[in-house]
Amino acid sequence: MTPAQRTERRRIIEAIAKLGPVVPGTLLERSMRCGRAGCHCHAEPPHLHGPYWYWTRKVDQKTVSKLLSADQVAEYQEWFDNERRLRALVAELEALGIEAIESDPRSARRGGTQR
After folding, report:
1. 4-56 confidence digits (pLDDT tens)
2. Which residues contact 1 (CB under 8 A, 6 or more apart)?
3. Structure confidence by residue, pLDDT tens digits, 66-76
4. Distances 83 to 4, 9, 10, 80, 99 between C-alpha atoms, Å
5. DSSP assignment, residue 106?
6. For residue 55, what is the enclosing H or E element?
7. Is 76 helix (H, G, I), strand (E, B) or coil?
8. Which of 78, 77, 91 is closest to 18 using CA atoms?
9. How much is the pLDDT for 56?
10. Which of 4, 17, 36, 55 yields a CA-CA distance of 20 to 30 A from 81?
11. 96 within 8 A of 5, measured Cβ to Cβ
């Protein structure tokens, strides 16, 4: 690993260490129609109910949703943002590792195609 790669690795690791709580999944804002005939949500144009906030994530290969209040969204939004930032930083760290290995002059260059 070159000195520049080591510096970049240190920067990424420090950024990961500074992250706060992390929550997997997606935060969705939805507005909906109800089943009551004559409700304003069925008018033209419709005035839908909501917004409702849903946290969706995968649990045992199934999508699970949980309704959150506006207060919860305000409190936990940073956690969802941290999760996206963590994924981006890990991707950078992986790319750096791949770059280091592929640029290592000790790597064998025998036969076959190199990617």
Report:
1. 999 999 999 999 999 999 999 999 999 999 888 889 888 888 889 989 999 99
2. 9, 100
3. 999 999 999 99
4. 26, 19, 20, 5, 24
5. T
6. strand 49-59
7. helix
8. 78
9. 96
10. 4
11. yes
* Separation CA 75–CA 103 (nearest Å): 44
Sequence spans of domains, the chain:
3-102
Q: What is the pTM of this model?
A: 0.74
Q: Are 26 and 55 in contact (CB under 8 A)?
A: yes
b/e code 75-100 from CB counts within 10 Å (16+ = b)? ebeebbebbebeeebeebbeebeeee
> In whole numbers, what is the pLDDT of the chain averaged over residues?
90
Residues 47 and 41 sit within 8 Å (Cβ to Cβ): yes
CA torsion, ordered 61, 30, 28, 71, to nearest 10 deg: -120
Q: Which helix (H) or strand (E) holds 68?
A: strand 62-68
Rg (alpha carbons) of the chain, rounded to whole number = 23
Cα–Cα distance measured from residue 21 to residue 86, given in angstroms and rounded to the nearest whole number: 10
Q: Which residue has the tokens 């943002």?
A: 81
Q: The tokens of 13 are what? A: 């690791």
